[in-house]
């Protein structure tokens, strides 16, 4: 079998990485900076409503507007709690998409990052999709602009184009398949069995991991998640030395050295299920810290330790917190429900082309 593993070198990746460094540092030092600065009306006044007041009003607004909150595991605990308490949903991006598609609500409040709101719109053109923070994006999405991606695809016309869900609607529209981390390996395995060679984008670590375990012929875009890329195998090994009974649960967006010392590799939902089914009572978790809320809530008798990142405090870039996921706030949800602002719209032709690639994933059943 002819297996190639080519990583596209793109100069802009370094540019956005530099540009984002100050954003990450600020988000880590001042986690509420973005919410406070994007909703000045709530914070400039001495008589601004409390979080509890807003929370209670949101509950009424959701009923009044026939709306539900769909939150990602990486959002703040209070948003996950709100979604759970009001008949909404908390999950990974595939589960969020499925819940949104099956929900009877007219309005979906997607608390996550931009591509998740776009995915909801692709699947639900008749529903109103609102996002608390339209500027909440993702380093994988930012690092894969459609014009560069189009050129990359044109270099490999014979390959099946498979993109990760963390991409814009335009990139999805250019793809044959869209996959999430929970289904990526099974889809690639299926395509490999059919004798297809793959063009993969944008996460290079997830791509390389799948390429390695499926032995599929893949060319891989050079993108990375700023949060997962920062986990360091050395720090995790040191933590394992302190807690020899702990198992390491890692997201496949983490670097290969981290995956090599992990006991389980999988999506956020996969990590929660693994922690549930494994007998051990202590785990080191290499993914965004928001997942700890779900893990501790579902498994209170087990201990979860966040995997160390490069640097500590002000010297780390993400500190295992996604600066874009943390842009979502109770204040913004209240604001968009009242005003209808931050609605996601898409060009019909882009939506339809992206829908085909997404639908393949949603229809996919492992054989
Ligand atoms: S955690 Fe990483 S992959 Fe997820 S939204 Fe943030 S930057 Fe993107």
Provide structural commentary.
Strand 10 (247-250), helix 14 and strand 11 (264-265) form a beta-alpha-beta unit. Helix 7 packs across helix 18. The chain is globular and about 55 Å long. It has a five-stranded parallel sheet with strand order 1-9-8-6-7. Strands 3-2-4-5 form a four-stranded parallel sheet, with helices on both faces. It is 47% helix and 14% strand. The protein has 18 helices and 13 strands. With 367 residues, the chain is α/β, with parallel strands linked by helices. The model is unreliable at 1-16 and 24-41 (pLDDT under 50). It has helices at 11-29, 33-38, 40-43, 51-64, 77-85, 93-102, 114-123, 139-142, 146-155, 169-174, 184-193, 204-214, 233-242, 256-260, 268-277, 291-298, 330-339, 348-363, and strands spanning 5-7, 67-72, 89-91, 107-111, 128-130, 160-164, 177-179, 198-201, 218-220, 247-250, 264-265, 282-286, 303-306. It binds iron/sulfur cluster. Iron/sulfur cluster is lined by residues 74, 113, 138-140, 166, 225-227, 288, 322, 324-325.
């Amino acid at each position: 079998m002819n297996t190639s593993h080519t990583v596209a070198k793109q100069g802009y990746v370094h540019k956005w990485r530099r540009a984002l460094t100050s954003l990450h540092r600020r988000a880590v030092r001042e986690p509420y900076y973005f919410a406070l600065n994007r909703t000045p009306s709530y914070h400039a006044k001495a008589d601004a409503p409390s979080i509890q007041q807003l929370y209670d009003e949101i509950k009424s607004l959701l009923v009044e507007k026939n709306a539900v909150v769909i939150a990602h595991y990486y959002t703040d605990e209070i948003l996950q709690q709100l979604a759970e308490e009001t008949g909404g949903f908390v999950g990974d991006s595939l589960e969020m998409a499925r819940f949104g598609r099956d929900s009877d609500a007219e309005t979906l409040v997607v608390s996550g990052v931009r591509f998740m709101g776009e995915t909801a719109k692709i699947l639900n053109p008749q529903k109103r999709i609102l996002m608390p923070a339209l500027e909440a994006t993702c380093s994988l999405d930012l690092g894969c602009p459609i014009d560069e991606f189009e050129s990359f695809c044109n270099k490999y016309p014979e390959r099946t184009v498979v993109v990760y869900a963390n991409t814009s609607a335009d990139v999805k529209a250019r793809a044959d398949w869209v996959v999430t981390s929970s289904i990526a390996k099974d889809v690639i395995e299926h395509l490999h069995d059919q004798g297809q060679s793959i063009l993969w984008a944008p996460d290079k670590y997830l791509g390389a991991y799948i390429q390695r375990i499926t032995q599929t012929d893949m060319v891989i875009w050079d993108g990375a998640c700023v949060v997962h890329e920062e986990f360091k195998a050395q720090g995790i090994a040191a933590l394992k030395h302190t807690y020899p009974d702990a198992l390491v649960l890692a997201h496949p967006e983490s670097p290969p050295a981290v995956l090599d010392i992990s006991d389980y590799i999988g999506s956020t939902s996969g990590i929660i299920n693994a922690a549930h089914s494994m007998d051990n009572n202590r785990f080191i978790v290499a993914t965004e810290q928001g997942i700890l809320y779900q893990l501790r809530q579902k498994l209170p008798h087990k201990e979860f330790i966040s995997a160390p990142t490069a640097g500590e405090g002000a010297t780390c870039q993400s500190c295992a917190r996604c600066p874009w996921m943390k842009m979502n706030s109770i204040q913004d949800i209240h604001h968009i429900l009242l005003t209808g602002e931050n609605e996601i719209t898409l060009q019909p032709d882009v939506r339809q082309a992206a829908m085909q690639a997404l639908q393949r994933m949603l229809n996919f059943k492992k054989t």
